[in-house]
Amino acid sequence: RNLLGTSFSSGHHLRTYSPSASNFSPCVIGLKMRKYGAASAPQPPYFRIFNPITQGEKFDAEGEYVRKWCPELKDVPNKFLMKPWECPPLELQSAGVTLGENYPEPIIDHKAGRERALAALAMVTG
Q: What is this structure's pTM?
């Protein structure tokens, strides 16, 4: 089973191929089974979970993208732009941001979510 709870071993992805169908070919079924078999097993010995805060700081250091698509954060200092909930209250107030009102509170603690995902992966992969 994958993290979404579906099983690749059930063959549900191959059911459109049958001897009576015009698209039936044992070769195609064999190729599909190899494809799905390879895709269902974890290839690398690790599981990468990207941190959206780190990615934002790395690839949008000046905040151009965030300020374009989240105009409510346009006046937040760059240092706190990717994590406005860590901004001192007075700076947030001067930027016109009120967490929970005109900008949402964080919906997940990334570190805890990452640990949960890694634990789920460990259960699946053994």
A: 0.59
